[in-house]
């Protein structure tokens, strides 16, 4: 577990950086002195974020749809061409869900797995040779407390977030002696637009905010906590309110108790 004293002049590549958790993480990394590479599908949205960062001229916006392998390869080439190295890769882009299993089409199941699992795997595999050649760097995945617990209305999302956690565990073991570190972040409810964009059973955005997210953690507090934990070299980072942390603890101590708790929870 490598510790960094600061992010001064370190290159941090963040996906899903045009809003929400990605934007908050970009702001915090910039405050800590990093050179931030912002990636999402819409260039104008990325540029709005970039110009709002500390020292905007040292950050770059690179457009890519992370589910398109050709675009991901091109983005990677641009990062290396403009920055020459990557110190942290934060796989943050994601898609949530608000639908019962019985109402979720297979197309929607696959769409969520594509964004939340396969695209993260492909980007990481694309960037991995650079980390191995440098013999340094940290790869972070934004999973979710839902990926540790599994709740109603989020089956595909929970499954994808659990899958990326296990894939990250395997990656960590494989690169442990190569100077490359792997962290997984498990956010609980954070105030972002994630629930507006969450897919319903037909694969369309639900278009409204969840009460739990409305009462969630402020994004800047989330980002400060994450960056501080990553700088300390932490590998398993759970960030959320008392309920989420309690749920994670119970999931480890007594899965049966957890299942009973989840059945009674109001999660939509």
From TrEMBL:
Record carries keyword Cell wall biogenesis/degradation: no
Residue ranges occupied by any Ketoreductase domain in the UniProt entry: 10-193
GO MF: oxidoreductase activity
UniProtKB keywords: Oxidoreductase
UniProt cross-references to Gene3D superfamilies, sorted A to Z: NAD(P)-binding Rossmann-like Domain (3.40.50.720)
Regions crossing the membrane: none
PROSITE patterns, per database record: ADH_SHORT (PS00061)
Pfam families: adh_short
Oxidoreductase is among the record's keywords: yes
GO cellular component terms listed in the entry, alphabetical order: membrane
UniProt record similarity statement: Belongs to the short-chain dehydrogenases/reductases (SDR) family.
Name this protein carries in UniProt: SDR family NAD(P)-dependent oxidoreductase
Upper taxonomic lineage: Bacteria, Pseudomonadati, Pseudomonadota, Gammaproteobacteria, Moraxellales
């Amino acid at each position: 577990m490598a510790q960094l004293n600061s992010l001064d002049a370190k290159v941090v590549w963040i996906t899903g950086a045009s809003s929400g958790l990605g934007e908050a993480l970009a702001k915090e990394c910039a405050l800590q002195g990093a050179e931030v590479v912002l990636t999402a599908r819409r260039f104008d949205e990325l540029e709005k974020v970039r110009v709002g960062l500390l020292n905007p001229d040292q950050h770059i916006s690179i457009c890519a749809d992370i589910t398109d392998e050709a675009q991901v390869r091109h983005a990677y080439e641009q990062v290396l061409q403009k920055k020459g190295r990557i110190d942290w890769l934060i796989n943050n882009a994601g898609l949530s869900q608000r639908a019962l299993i019985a109402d979720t089409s297979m197309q929607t199941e696959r769409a969520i797995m594509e964004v939340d699992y396969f695209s993260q795997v492909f980007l990481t595999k694309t960037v991995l040779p650079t980390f191995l050649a440098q013999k340094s760097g940290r790869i972070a995945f934004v999973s979710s407390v839902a990926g540790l617990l599994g709740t109603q209305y989020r089956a595909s999302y929970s499954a994808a977030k659990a899958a990326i956690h296990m894939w990250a565990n395997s990656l960590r073991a494989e690169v442990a002696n190569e100077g490359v570190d792997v962290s997984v972040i498990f956010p609980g409810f954070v105030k972002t637009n994630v629930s507006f964009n969450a897919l319903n059973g037909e694969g369309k955005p639900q278009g409204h905010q969840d009460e739990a997210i409305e009462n969630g953690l402020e994004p800047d507090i989330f980002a400060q906590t994450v960056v501080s934990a990553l700088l300390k070299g932490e590998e398993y980072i759970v960030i959320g309110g008392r309920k989420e942390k309690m749920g994670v603890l119970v999931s480890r101590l007594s899965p049966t108790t957890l299942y009973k708790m989840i059945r009674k929870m109001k999660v939509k």
